[in-house]
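Lab notebook, bench 4. Continuing the backlog of folding jobs that were queued last week. Each job is logged with the same field layout so the records can be merged later without manual cleanup. Today's entry covers Integral membrane sensor signal transduction histidine kinase, a 393-residue chain. Filled in by technician R.K.

JOB TYPE: sequence-to-structure
TARGET: Integral membrane sensor signal transduction histidine kinase
LENGTH: 393
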Amino acid sequence: MTATDTTDPRTHCGDPYMSGRGEWAGIALGMAWLIIPILDTIGSRQTPARAVLTVVLFAVAASAYLFAIPGASGAQSRWRVYASIAAMTAAGVVLTLVVASSWAILFTYVCVLAGIHLPPRQAGPILLASVALAIAINLHEGTGVAFSWGASAFGLGALMLALGRLIQANASLREAHAQIRELAVEAERERFARDLHDLLGHSLSVITLKAELAGRLLPARPDEAQRHVRELEAVAREALGEVRETVSGYRRPTLAGELAGARMALGAAGIEMRVRERHPRDELPADVEALLAWAVREGTTNVIRHSGAHRCEIAIEPRDGGTSAEINDDGSGIDSAAARTNRDVNGAGGNGLDGLRERAAQLAGCVEAGARPEGGFRLRVVVPLPPAPGEAA
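JOB STATUS: finished
OUTPUT FIELD FOLLOWS
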């Protein structure tokens, strides 16, 4: 943690389990149960002093509940949780003993706060103490619902404790995935640097040697120097071709990788994905497979960014003597089709549908994109396959 990070690593408070409208909906739903003791208090005859006390302590309890919720950054310190629990417990004790027994519901909120925001070793004692306190106070008041309050507080607290553990596990898993991605990128950079070094080290050494030799021979033996210059040019062109081939290999996607990436991306967007493969991948030439992989990437990107779809189907199957990749969704159809012809989809440097058409044209293939009659959008890439060795004759 940095010096400015106040998040306790042993709490759940730094986990983004709620955000935006979901957060406020959860807060409103949680505080809605306070209407029970409020109505009970209004229905009973309270002295002015008790009425003022009720308003003040209710404000304290509500503020404590909100105070324990992480801020916009998701960061939360443990002392804020303890302060909120202490304030709500004190308010609950006084309101239950002085105003109405129904205010024992505040002990349920204490259990919920402890269960969500604290790890089990710290939440467990608070949970048991709050339940015992709720039961003891209601037994003292002779309300007859002591154990009901205790059971509800314990049940909700245990549920929130389990939820907090789940949130913490999900956050740890996300962090682990992020670290794995960073390590994978770093390993790829190292491998790329190593391959370029191995590839260019010899060629650049030869180029340097021949350039120096040609420079020495030029005054006395220009014909021999010219021969070394021609050889130098040949070595340089060969090295350039090897670099281009290497870079092209690094940029070439695979169907397996793009389908896996599409499943992850669509799932994260809440879009159901179905895959139908009727053309074995091992029968596809590398450049054809790369084109279909680009189609899957472009199609799923557009589905996520522009369609508003709930379902997406990807089909890899033989078509017209060749093979095809087809991406269908049930999104906004014509509006989506119009959106997907805009420049923000096409991008720069050969990306988007224009780039896909260029890649397909290099293999004598074609790209079809448009609204489906039954609704939604279709992207289809069809590419011919080269004849098998036995058919070439």
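OBSERVATION: The chain has two domains: 1-251, 255-384.
SIGNED: R.K.
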